[in-house]
Amino acid sequence: MIRRMEEKDIDDVLELLKEVNLVHHLGRPDLFKKATKYSKDNLLKMINDDNNPIFVYEDNNHVVGHAFLETIIKGNRLVNNIKTLYIDDICVKKEERNKGIASGLFDYIKKYAKDNGYYNIELNVWSFNDNAYKFYEKMGLKPQKVTMEKIL
């Protein structure tokens, strides 16, 4: 079942955030600390933000997947005004992967975006995260731009 995150989900979501961070920390320890992106207090403040919803996938009264979303309005003299739904974070519990949960979350996000007048869905994926990159390609996403770096 996919639904908006509630206060009762915070502990499960914090565990998922640890999994997400570990992937990033192991992939780029020069950039990512061993920490979670949000605290319990942060999540309590974020739960009811309609512009930046958090959806969870619940199974047997536990959250096994989540999606953190942000509304971004772009536009200037050069770029058309568009309303983008940015996927800040999407995660499925390691033991629950390859069961269609991530695909279900993505389909839910896509429907939410269409129903709420978004132009597109965007996200960032780190180059070391091959599994995520392949998943997003499978969901129909294509590279929009590439960020490059030279470590000094």
Characterization of the model:
This protein has 152 residues and is of the alpha+beta class. The chain has a single domain (2-138), classed as 3-Layer(aba) Sandwich (Aminopeptidase), CATH 3.40.630.30. 32% of the residues lie in helices and 24% in strands. It contains four helices and five strands; from the N terminus they run βααβββαβα. The protein has a five-stranded mixed beta sheet with strand order 1-2-3-4-5. β4 (82-92), α3 and β5 (120-123) form a beta-alpha-beta unit. The radius of gyration is 16 Å and the shape is globular. The mean pLDDT is 95.
The CA-CA distance between the termini, in Å, is 46 Å
Please state the average pLDDT score. 95
Helix/strand order:
EHHEEEHEH
Rg is 16 Å
CATH fold type: Aminopeptidase
Principal-axis shape equals: globular
For the secondary structure, the number of strands is 5
Largest sheet: 5 strands, mixed
**Name of the CATH homologous superfamily:** Gcn5-related N-acetyltransferase (GNAT)
Strand content: 15-25%
Named at the architecture level, the CATH assignment is: 3-Layer(aba) Sandwich
| Highest-level CATH class | Alpha Beta
Structural class based on helices, strands and sheet pairing: alpha+beta
